[in-house]
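Reviewers of the previous submission asked for a worked example of the structure-prediction workflow described in the proposal, so we include one complete record here. The input consisted solely of the amino acid sequence. No template or homolog information was supplied to the procedure at any stage.
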Amino acid sequence: MGDTGTPSSVPRPDPEPTPMPRIALYTLIVCLLAVAAAVVSFVQGSWLGIVWVLLAGLSSNMTWYYAKRGKTARNGSVTS
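From that input alone, the workflow returned the following structure tokens.
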């Protein structure tokens, strides 16, 4: 009684993949802006561009981390 014939424990695939987590998108934008700022600084002859390069490296690592964490969460991985 009340059995519809479909098991409820079977996971259903998502109709479309979910987009990149928002924080990963923000860090990607920061990375691109930092690279542009570094190029402008070096073209103008300023050594301040080194700081922009370091910021670009940090933000690119953050982008990679949050994108991978979001992908792992979407796939339902048990280990984080």
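The longest helix spans residues 49-75. We consider this example representative of the routine output the project will generate in years two and three.
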